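Let's study today's protein:

:::
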Amino acid sequence: ESRAIVQSMSRKGNCYDNAVIENFFGIMKSEFLYIKEFENVEHFKIELEKYIDYYNTKRIKAKLKMSPVQYRTHFYQAA
């Protein structure tokens, strides 16, 4: 509440409610978590921030043929 974050709770037995975030976590684990070694928690946090920035701004999504930020910019310019 103090950070204005609303928790999303899935209905029991409905995997589609969390499909987007489950997809992200699967990709993040295979591209980042399982292939890197971290010296400590602080090092992990720094590297995670870098990965999320890469994921949002540079990593090309196959369906979009652009990064999420590029897609959002393109979408708003077209609207």
The radius of gyration is 16 Å. Helices lie at 19-33, 41-57, 68-78. Residues 15-78 form one domain. DSSP finds three helices and no strands in the chain.
